[in-house]
Amino acid sequence: MTRPETIVPETPQPPYPIRHKSQIISGFGRGSSELGIPTANIPVHDELNNLPTGIYYGWCKIYPHPQESDTTDKRPDGQDVLFNHGNNLCKTDLSTVWPMVMSIGWNPFYHNKTKAAEIHIINKFSSNFYGADLEYVVLGYIRPELNYTTKEALIKDIELDISIAKDILKREEYAKYEHELE
What we know:
EC 2.7.1.26, two-stranded antiparallel sheet, globular, FMN, single chain, alpha+beta, ATP binding, 5 helices, transferase
């Protein structure tokens, strides 16, 4: 399938904005390790599940999850993941509202059996924050979920999605939602 042109309305159109808060869960670990594009996986709640699969854009903010100590969980592949619940993030990481792109779907390149929602926060963090809470607002749709013949093609498209999202979120009617998460 060829990547379709991204058409962005002047303002978010229904069903957007979609605002929610979720705890970050473990995913497959491929975003960071294989693609160099880390993602925060969140549960696919009904509102997200009703959206077409594809790539979305919006804003998000990280909050430490009330937890006394670090815990460990297992990824679907059996690998242990340290959950620090966001307690290692600096104040700037926690006080900033970040632009994001979100993938909702089956990740056909990886042949997933489970639908996933993965948020790439457009920032470089010094540590992971599995188990933290993530408040987000989805403002629109970039493109449908696509399959790729190479990992390089997938990475190139994700980088284009990030660039498109950054440009859209600079527009006044989209930028104002950043302040709703402060």
